[in-house]
Predict the structure.
Amino acid sequence: MIRARLFLMANSRGTRTILILAAIIVIGAGIKLSAPLLVPVLVATFIAIVTAPIVMWLCDRGIPTLLAVLAGLTLDVAAGAALGFPLAGAVATFTERAPVYAVLLTGRMEETEAWLAGHGIYLESIFDLSEPTWILNLATVTAQYAASFVSQMVLVLLIVAFMLFESTGLREKLARIATPSQIQELSAAAHEVNAYLVAKTVLSLITGVAVFVWCWWRGVDVPLLWGLLAYLLNYIPTVGQIIAAVPAIALAFVQLGPGDALIVAAGFGAINLAIGAVEPRIMGDALGLSALVVLVSMVVWGWLLGPVGALVSAPLTMVIKHGLAHSEQLRWMAELLGPVPDPVGKSTASNADSADELSRA
């Protein structure tokens, strides 16, 4: 009898796991198919999350809803223009200079091939990289993607406007349909995402300025582009700055030579180490994800939603982890997504506090 019960329990757990995996696959397929529709909505959602506290603060102080929403949208448009116009100009400059870089790359590859041949290494295939076609195609694709992204911002701002109007009455709606504990959980999740986005924006801005100054001082062409790229990709934890450093270092190699490229790479490394040392003190455990989960989530969300998915992969995974943590049956998945816990001897007090918080939730 006991064996039969154990068998049924194990079978039910296995069936539940299979159903969860099947649901994840179906949801992932739906997200992949609806990516063109989801991407602007997703971007608008995160912009609205950051802007909504400002709008609510104005409304609480007697400002009419329409004026409060217009003020929030004005801030969003100003921030987008401050980023979009310089980015479009930098991409255009890089695209214009792409033929020159292709010629320089041909010379660098020939020099590299001759140096390797002098040391007994013959790599004929390396000369294929010197063909100008691939770099021209890369510049064209980058310009096209930037233009399409800017064109979508009109739709994004329209969605943000309606979301901000809805946010002014969201508290009253939630009070009618949700329990106080559920409202508290939603508020905590929104606060975590908002705090993460604000802190990450400030640190990304510092990173972008530092990269711009470094590339400008070292004489790398289009330093504004590499600073803006570092700003954007810094939203991807752990690997974002590595990805942002590659094109700037490659251009330094093509334009200035291998010695200066190493110096530029060292500067990127110093900036990343400095930001990496400051970031945990400012953000604390706001992310709450392991390094492996961050990397895998970037790949998964990037495959599902494109480059925008890679940029917002961390906050998306944060929201999912927060939802799983408040489910009795799925809490184990939230634990797997989290960082490695501290040793038992060092984290007894923190575990007790976490248990008290979960019991109150």
